[in-house]
Structure formats: structure tokens, C-alpha cells
Design goal:
This protein has about 625 residues and is an alpha+beta fold. About 35% of the residues lie in helices and about 35% in strands. The longest helix has about 50 residues, at about 210-255.
Length: about 625
Amino acid sequence: MSKKNTIQSFLLATLFVMSSNNYANALNTDADSIGLGGDLAGVNNAFSVLKNPASIMTSKNGNIILPLSPTLSFNSDSLTIKQISDFKDIFAKKDVNSISEILSFLDKNNGKIALESNVYLPILGYSGTPFSIGNNKIGFGINIAGSVFVKSNFEVSKVLSSGFSSTFSTVNDIKSKVESSSTKISDISKNLKLPDLSKYTSGSFNIFDPAQLKTASEDFGSIQKNTIEPLITEGENTLAEFDKITKDIKGLLETFSSISKDKLLKGELIADGHAVIGVSGAMDVFKNNFVNVSAGLTLKAFVMPSIPLGDTLGKSVPETLVSNFAKTPISITADIEADKFKSIDDINTLLDNDVKAITDAGKELMTNTKDLNTKVSSILGKINQNELVAAVSESASLRSDFVNIQTIGTELTKKVDANFAKNITDKIQSSLKEDLKGVKLNINSVTDVSPVGFGADLGVQAILFNDLLLSLSLENPVVLWPSKSKKSVYGLDLENKDLSKLDIFSVLKLMEEGKAQDYNYNLSEPFAMRFGGAYNLAKITPYLNEGKLVADVEQVFNGRPLAFHLGFEKNWNFGLAGVSLRLGTQLGGLANTYSVGLGTNIGAFNISAGYSASNPIDPTNSKSISGGLSTSVRF
């Protein structure tokens, strides 16, 4: 097996480490924000406190979040849901060769893929202003929710992805291609029958006998058609195949020659499920006839049960790596690195010597055979033109020409005997094994996460002229969640292994395991900053009474790009009941999306539904999709 094929296997192992049954997106807490394009800063409802505690001050008497309010999200920068389903099937097969398809896709996306998903389920919540100090109302809220979060993102070196997605499958193909070409050369040489030309140079041949002349013409025509021309055709095809083998391998080696000590692949997988208990407080910090500024703080406790996964994993995780998946949460960062491929020079020398010797001998055989073909064509022409004496004279040298070709063919057959392909493969394996010792899979995993962690959210909100609401929130600027982190280094144990029959998981060996270090776990609760607002459109035209425009800018500090959300909401009231329509879009983030939402209220009871996708018409071909249902009571 070639170095390329072995690293393919190694790469598959790492990609497998980073694959999971759920994939991912930003946290949408309610259906209203989904319908408004993901906007959170400008939304003012029962769920607003989950992102900005200062919003409690605009909640009138109070809100209660009801349990039937789930949201689900998926988001990717490059893969659609259908493509993920297809690639999951490839991962499940653990087929080394099929990894080229994934790497080809990665190459088209600059070698990067980011995936996130989230399921958010509020269990119960209250927010309102039940207390007062003097004339100042004090906001209070308590919310309990469950969250399942999965994040996976990885980056493959451009050199690696373009090299692996090349048309030449693996260097290991040398063996099969050389075997095929060698067989053809042997067959050609064996079928090179030496014709009996003695009768045309003996006294018994009568150049004036029409019957003998016809026989001579047929004999020479048969020699040309059945022996010489097939030899030329097969020989040139075989030489072309040898040429292609050499060029393809040299092209591949050229790609890998640019790899020195570099990270060939790096990525991370985070998966956990935990409960969040938040207690919020808020108050007005500045208020006059034109401006009302509020500030709020939420103190949070994260409760995460540790669930053993050993029995549920089955054979989906290699035994060598199973300790990294022993229990939830799963938090792994991994990379593959390799030293400079010193075997490139050895393989180039092999091509320039062993394979070139075959092609040179083949070219000599073709040159002589073409000369012979020209001579036979000349003899046939002379026979057909009754230049019989010249034809007989010229045919006298054919025997020595055939003998010369046979000699070259015999020597060529010896060079490409049954051991030729094996010898070449053995030389490549011998050269590669030393290099492969320098290929390492580094895994950093988080272990022993405390069942309880703590965090905080900060928020400021301002209402200007009763028409414009501005909001700034900092989510998780502080998270304290004790855990341990350790580094493991895996290598390839290739002692007495045949690379052409290598099962990557059977040779993956733990080479080094570091000591567990103290680590603050905040990977599923990243720091996020949002700024935005909402504008009452009734001031512009009475037709937009109960209408508003919302917008915000969101930056989540976990590798996700900046996102801009824009939404429009219009309410129609009919006595104690009302209907709301929401439209929105997200620009940036992991994908651009388009969204729609509907809501209704009957008295104090509110119910809303929201849907968002990068391809709303065909969700399976969407890179991003979110949906949610929200229920609450406002009083």
C-alpha cells in the first residue's frame, strides 16, 4: 500500500473521530427569532430574557414560558443535509478509497467544513417586574431549559486535499498496472512467431509461377497483419500505459514534495447535553421623557450528567480510540502531522531506473518492429508490381530482422517477469515505512467535566422616543466549568505489516499519553456578542401600525463568522385575539438563510412557529435549516 493510501486511512480515522450522529447551528431560543431571520437583540417577548436580561424591564407585568417550546437548528458552511447523509454512509463503510470523494469536495471548499447543531427545550420560565424599590421597578426572572449541542469543524491542508482528489487513485496502483503491462509485453514476445522464409530464398521457388507468387503475397501479408501490426499496436499501448504510470506517480510525488512538517488536517468535535438554570435581575439605570436605559444580569448554573457511552458505541469507534468516547460530554480536537516525505527521492529513482529500463527496451522493440513492417510493406509492393528479383533479394534479410526482434522481446520478458511488479512494490513499501513512522495523529480531549458549572450573561437595553429599541448583550463572558484536558499521540505500528493489505485501525497505536491538566470547559457555552434593535414603523405610515423592523449583528467566538440578521413583523389585532406574520434573513454566519414565521394570541396565551433555511423550497438541499414552536403566557 502506498503512502498516499496509508495516510488516506489515517485521515479517515481522524474524520471518523470527528463525525457524529448530529450536526449543527447557532442557538435559536424561540420561534419568533427564527421567523425574523435569527434576530435576537430586537425581539421583545417572553424568551428575550434568555439572551438579554435587561429585556425584562419591557415585559409589562410578566411572562411565563410553557414547556412545549422546542427549537431545532442545523447549520453548515458547505454541506447540505443530503450531502451529510451521503457522507455519513461513506464514513460508516470505513472505506479507505472512498475518502477521495470527501477530499475532492473539501478541495472545492478550500479544504474547510464547519457544522453545528442544537436542540433547545425550555422547560419552564418566568420573567417580570414583581418588585419595586421606591418608584423603581425591579425585574426578576428564572428559567430552566435543556440544550443538546454538537459542533464539528475541520480543515484539510490544500496540498493534501488536492493531492488525494487527483485522478490517479493511489501509488499502490503501480502493482496492478505494472502487472497488467508486464503480462501484455510477455504475451507479445511469446506470440512473436518466426515465419519460415527459407522457401523464398531457395532454388525451389519459381518467381515466374503465378500460384507461387500468389502464395508469397499471402504469406507476407499474413506476417504483416497477424504478427507485426498487432505487435506495434499492443506495444505502443503498453508503452503509453507505462508512460502514464510514470507521469501520474511523478505528479503525485510533486504534490507531496511540498509537505514538510505541517498540519495535514485539524478539527474538533464537541457534543454534550446539559440543563441551564438561569436567575435574572434587571432595573432601569436612566430614565426621562425621551430615553429609558435598562441593565440586567443573569447568573447561570450548567448541570450536565455524565453518561457512559461504552455499551452504546458498539463497533462505531475503533477500540484504540474508544477511551476518548467513554462518556459525555465528548470534546476532542485532533490534527494529523507528518515529517518531510524523504521517500519521494527513492521512488523517483525507482521510476527513473527500473521502470525507465522497461520503457527504453520497449521503445527499441517498437523501432525495430516498425522498420520490419516498412520492409515487409516494401516486399509486398515489389511482389505486386512484379519486381520479383528485388523482392526475393530484400526478403533474404528478414530472418535476421525477426531474430533480432525476438532477442529484444526475450530480454524484455525477463525484465518484466512475474516478480517485477512485486519487486517494485516491495521497494516502495520499504522506502515508505520509515516515512510513515513520522505521521502522527494528535488528539486533545476534555475529560472529567464537573457535573455543575457556572456562567453569566450581561445586557443593556435602551428605548428612545418610544419608537426605537436598542439592545446590547454579552452571553457567557464568564464561564467557570472545571474539567481536565489531556493530549494523546497515536502513530502507525507497521512492523512486519504489508502496506498493500493494511487495515488502518489494526495498526493505529497509542504512542504517548500526556498527563491530565486543569481546563475550563466552555466549548458548548461559547462567548457571544449581539447588538441590534427594533423600530416601530407606525411613525412612517399608519398602514404599518403594529409593524416593526428588527436587525442585529451577532458574533459568536467559536470560529463562526460574523452574522447579520434582518427581519420584519406585522401584527393584526382582532379584539382579544391577534395574528402575526414574520419575515427575515441572515447574511453571513455559516450560511445565508431566509425565514418565515406565524404567530397568534388568544387573550394572554401566545403560540408561534418559525422556519428558516438557506433553501426554503428544498430543505434537504439546504446548508442551514431551523425550526421552532414557542408557547407562552403574557399577563
